[in-house]
Amino acid sequence: MNYQMDTRGQTQSAQPGIEEVMDPTPVIIRESYRGSGRLQGKTALITGGDSGIGRAVAVHFAREGADVAIVYLDENQDAEDTKSMVEAEGKACLLLQGDIRSEQFCKEAVSRTVNAFGKLNILVNNAAEQHPKEHIREISARQLTDTFATNIFSFFYFTQAALPHLRKGDSIINTTSITAYHGSPALLDYSSTKGAIVAYTRSLAGSLAEEGIRVNAVAPGPIWTPLIPSTFDSERVEKFGKDTPFKRPGQPAEVAPCYVFLACEDASYMSGQVLHPNGGQVVNG
């Protein structure tokens, strides 16, 4: 499949962005992707599941046999579109709207998922926000607090709420970023949270190993999602991903199979690890 595309002129005014107005729209799943029942009978909860990587993960999980609950902020149409895609795969999709910076909402989201499906087997901590600033002096206390609350505090909240329901063989998957390894001068606070997620993943994996709950992460490189045109100006968007060895941004469909692998029994001997779908950039981490 040819993933080359023209991203010129793509900007949006507010995060986390709307997928339905993107042109070209992200590739969510390849037509050639064949599910093989690797997640049959499982239930997954995915934060930021309305669009981008989260949407692709939801649809791939459904094609592999899982019911899914997706958490989103206020992108109602994107969430409904994701639900329709999941249902087209013959699986159920629960929509959970709210602010993941709230510990109480995170608890309620897990509770509603378990009440709806009777169980929870896979937690995907994926939602994030980013706000470019050219210098550390420009990062306000409010921005710093919000970025950490969304990008790492919510991981703690959801994990704490989910653990009473997870059993041996179940899985937690965290979305970090290539910025945790390469850094990003204009995304200092965002990159810091992504580094924290790597440490969180490795530490939690050790903590839960005796319980048989695996904890891994995925560190995407530049991926074409609504967060990109809603973060950067048109000049940055036009150049997005072209500095990779592949000379292009990746698509959510090229990332989601990593989550399938980590969620299923194929990765039964992996915990505390990070996968790197990043267009060929070597990070040695």
UniProtKB/TrEMBL annotation:
Listed Pfam families: adh_short_C2
Record bears the keyword Oxidoreductase: yes
Keywords: Oxidoreductase
InterPro entries: NAD(P)-bd_dom_sf (IPR036291), Sc_DH/Rdtase_CS (IPR020904), SDR_fam (IPR002347)
PROSITE patterns membership: ADH_SHORT
One MF annotation (Gene Ontology) recorded for this entry: oxidoreductase activity, acting on CH-OH group of donors
Family: Belongs to the short-chain dehydrogenases/reductases (SDR) family.
Full protein name: SDR family oxidoreductase
